[in-house]
């Protein structure tokens, strides 16, 4: 029997990278999985590549009123929700001079405000053994070039794992953060091959384990947090980051 047998799980940003690999692991462990993304084409492609009970839903994590629509769609489809993984993110990195108020608001809407209102909208659907997983980043803990706004929003999101656990524990809802370090995904593809290779070289030097993590390693950690195996784990942050968030290199 799978570790998530009979569970209903939502993963925001499930068309690629960590979200996609987590969908694959959740399905293999017996869950039904809804994935979201901003493009119908990418959602359909992801659903085709996944094996099992997949529900692709077009939804922009930065559209705050749209979070209620996502919750309503899940209520139509499923009797309850057991796992929520807030994974979609705006990863814009810029020097302070280049930030506009609009770009700042969009990042905060996607990475902090949207996830908060998604959880609020999902409350009536959450089961009494529900697990909420908030995907943060090592940038919440250490400074990085051009990552001030991204890091601040991720720190806010991870902080919700404590505050919301406190509020929701008596409903049986656990909330935890999952904090990736540098992980091989498409997230840096927009840099182009040369800058991406240089960044990976730099990261291999600075990550204490001297390698970049894989999306599968994050997905396996997500399975643990989603499953009842982690029933005594609440309000904490699981760092899967090769040590970069804690250790000097
Ligand atoms: N990779 C890393 O090194 C790293 C490090 C630290 C933290 N993280 C965090 O890990 C999470 C996953 O990152 P990843 O590396 O797997 O990224 P990725 O491969 O670029 O995947 C991002 C996913 O999120 C979706 N997405 C992006 N913006 C969205 C929005 N506004 N609404 C709905 N879906 C949206 C994308 O789908 P569409 O494009 O189809 O909409 C895609 O499915 C993020 O929270 C990121 O901050 C990653």
Automatic annotation (TrEMBL):
<dbReference type="InterPro" id="IPR002347">
    <property type="entry name" value="SDR_fam"/>
</dbReference>
<comment type="similarity">
    <text>Belongs to the short-chain dehydrogenases/reductases (SDR) family.</text>
</comment>
<keyword id="KW-0560">Oxidoreductase</keyword>
<dbReference type="InterPro" id="IPR036291">
    <property type="entry name" value="NAD(P)-bd_dom_sf"/>
</dbReference>
<dbReference type="GO" id="GO:0016491">
    <property type="term" value="F:oxidoreductase activity"/>
</dbReference>
<protein>
    <submittedName>
        <fullName>SDR family oxidoreductase</fullName>
    </submittedName>
</protein>
<dbReference type="Pfam" id="PF13561">
    <property type="entry name" value="adh_short_C2"/>
</dbReference>
<feature type="domain" description="Ketoreductase">
    <location>
        <begin position="7"/>
        <end position="181"/>
    </location>
</feature>
<dbReference type="InterPro" id="IPR057326">
    <property type="entry name" value="KR_dom"/>
</dbReference>
<dbReference type="InterPro" id="IPR051122">
    <property type="entry name" value="SDR_DHRS6-like"/>
</dbReference>
């Amino acid at each position: 029997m799978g570790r998530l047998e009979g569970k209903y799980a939502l993963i925001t940003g499930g068309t690629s990278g960590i979200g996609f690999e987590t969908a694959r692991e959740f399905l293999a462990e017996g869950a039904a999985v809804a994935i979201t993304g901003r493009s119908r084409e990418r959602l359909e492609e992801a659903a085709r590549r996944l094996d099992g009970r997949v529900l692709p839903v077009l939804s922009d994590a930065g559209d705050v009123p749209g979070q209620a629509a996502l919750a309503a769609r899940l209520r139509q489809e499923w009797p309850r929700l057991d796992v929520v993984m807030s994974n979609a993110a705006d990863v814009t990195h810029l020097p302070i001079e280049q930030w506009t108020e609009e770009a700042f608001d969009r990042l905060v809407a996607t990475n902090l405000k949207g996830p908060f209102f998604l959880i609020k909208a999902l409350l009536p659907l959450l089961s009494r053994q529900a697990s909420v997983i908030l995907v943060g980043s090592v940038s919440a803990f250490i400074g990085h070039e051009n990552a001030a706004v991204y890091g601040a929003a991720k720190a806010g999101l991870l902080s919700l794992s404590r505050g919301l656990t406190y509020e929701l524990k008596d409903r049986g809802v656990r909330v935890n953060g999952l904090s990736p370090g540098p992980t091989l995904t498409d997230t840096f593809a927009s840099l182009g091959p040369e800058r991406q290779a240089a960044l990976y070289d730099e990261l291999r030097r600075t990550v204490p384990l001297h390698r970049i993590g894989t999306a599968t390693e994050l997905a396996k950690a997500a399975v643990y947090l989603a499953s009842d195996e982690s029933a005594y784990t609440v309000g904490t942050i699981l760092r899967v980051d090769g040590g970069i968030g804690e250790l000097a290199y």
